[in-house]
Write a structure and sequence with these properties.
The chain has 166 residues and is an alpha/beta fold. The protein has a domain of 85 residues: Rossmann fold (3-Layer(aba) Sandwich). The protein has four helices and nine strands; from the N terminus they run αβαββαββββαββ. The strands form three sheets. It has a four-stranded mixed β-sheet. A three-stranded antiparallel β-sheet has the order 5-6-7, with no helix packed on it. The radius of gyration is 16 Å and the shape is globular.
Length: 166
């Protein structure tokens, strides 16, 4: 989910025979497709908030996406994720956690409680984006509410990650 330009899709191809890559941006899907050029990846342009799973998967993966899900849409999104994980399948996700030292000039945090950040690209374009730093207990609670049994971990500095099963 939110496959982006293919960094993680490339890694997932090493462990999976067939990948379904979903993203809202056709432009990044084309970058991903061109980079990997694999018949084992099926691409779909979808809005993950409007998307409804058409299949169940052995592994559902997203990285650095959940932090862009506004809190009011989190349960809706995780319920869709739950429907897309097969009975013996797993969810794995990784994302940013709040770390004051990571707020560089191109990653300005207005304040820890705000869900918006200004993001400046290398070409000078600037955007206001949703960036939510979900805490481990909050994330576990929402995953459990969706039906998952979740194990949440954090690294010493920058990352939060979760594995979850039905």
């Amino acid at each position: 989910m939110a496959s982006g330009t293919g960094i993680w899709t490339q890694e997932l191809l090493k462990i999976g025979n067939k990948i379904t890559a979903l993203d809202a941006s056709q432009a990044v899907i084309e970058i991903n497709r061109h980079k990997l050029n694999s018949p084992n990846v099926k691409y779909s342009q979808v809005d993950l908030f409007a998307w409804e799973p058409e299949a169940e998967y052995d592994l559902v993966f997203f990285s650095f996406w959940l932090s862009h899900v506004p809190p009011e849409l989190l349960d809706l999104f995780l319920n869709k994720v739950y429907k897309s994980v097969s009975a013996r399948g797993k969810l794995f996700m990784i994302d940013s956690r709040f770390e004051p030292t990571s707020t560089a000039k191109n990653h300005i945090l207005e304040n820890e409680k705000s869900i918006y950040q200004n993001r400046k690209l290398n070409d000078g374009q600037e955007y206001k984006i949703v960036k939510v730093f979900y805490q481990p207990d909050t994330l576990r609670s929402h995953l459990n509410k969706a039906g998952f049994q979740a194990d949440i971990k954090i690294t010493d500095n920058y990352f939060i990650y979760a594995t979850a099963t039905k």
